């Protein structure tokens, strides 16, 4: 079991690195070929399609993973669970596909893009990734995703040459998604056996999956709705393009910030099962401190290099994305905190009600501020609304658990990260004013920023850094 966990961790780590690297290859190329208007058109149609996928899946992917995991050692039970959830998903997605087609028929713009993205809905209807996650076969998932993403990249560089190739770009993206999900069916017979249809109880899964579905709806409002509202309010896909590409850079950085909560969740769940509340609190406080140590320098680092990064990474057409990236950067800290408190603490300790209410609050804040700010500030207003939404989620969660976890203590222990990160920001921001935007100059700024941050932590005698160094030296000796 320990060996399997180690292998799964290695494959997941490799995939997370791949997720960061691949967009660094394709984003500069696609941004220049399609431009802000093309990127905005794709992002706008994809945001609408995402809602049909969300309501079609009704939380069955997360629920299915959990239910399959419950029956890992029983092939009959796991097969029955697989078919019940699969048939329920096919039914709900079929309804969503019918409504999607009917809706597209009434639209005047982007009909071709929407019809191509019908492949996304079909791909999600046939997606059985949740099964492999439930039986902890991460190797299959990772290898599949790596191969399909590489095929997608080759196709993009081979066939997408001009702005008129937007529909081809969307087809490559949607087609590879469908191809990847279909490939999961090649090995499914090794893990399941046939189950008579009359023994399947499909409806029993409806209520529990809906409970998990509600937080996903709330989260999607302030992660997808912003792009949809920019399009509806401004009727300007170029603004969506500016916003989308800035968000893409933030999402790349988030894979580093949020990785800790994924690793720690099983540990906290185990401690909760053994009623070890003291260790749970200790782990959560330390995780918050580690997260701030990582997210603060990344946040200030992105602010510092934004003016040097955007021109060469996205192209001169995306210069307006600089201000959006600058104001959106605090999301890295806020989402880092909510991941630790939400996924690592609230969900494993069966405090899902607090988590759900916090996501609802975030969606309400985001929706209201979008309506107020987008008409005047366009995509910049949407960025402000997203940051405010994530902050409201953090504040609600931290207030609810204040008697268990004193966040003020965490801030006191973490103040050196804010100070060191801010000094780093001043240094690289001023330096970026004199450096010509290029890959080399951005790399130099990142290296200088990292050095400043570490030197400042040494000057401030940060206990986390010194403690880590002592452990390393002790192990070597």
TrEMBL record:
GO terms for cellular component: membrane. Its main location: membrane. It is found in: Membrane. CDD domains: MATE_Wzx_like (cd13128). InterPro entries: Polysacc_synth (IPR002797), PolySynth_Transporter (IPR052556). Keywords: Membrane, Transmembrane, Transmembrane helix. It is a multi-pass membrane protein. The chain crosses the membrane at residues 7-30, 42-64, 85-106, 112-132, 141-160, 166-188, 209-229, 249-269, 290-310, 322-347, 414-432, 438-460. It holds the Pfam family Polysacc_synt. PANTHER family: LOCUS PUTATIVE PROTEIN 1-RELATED (PTHR43424:SF1). This is Flippase. The lineage of its organism: Bacteria, Bacillati, Bacillota, Erysipelotrichia, Erysipelotrichales.
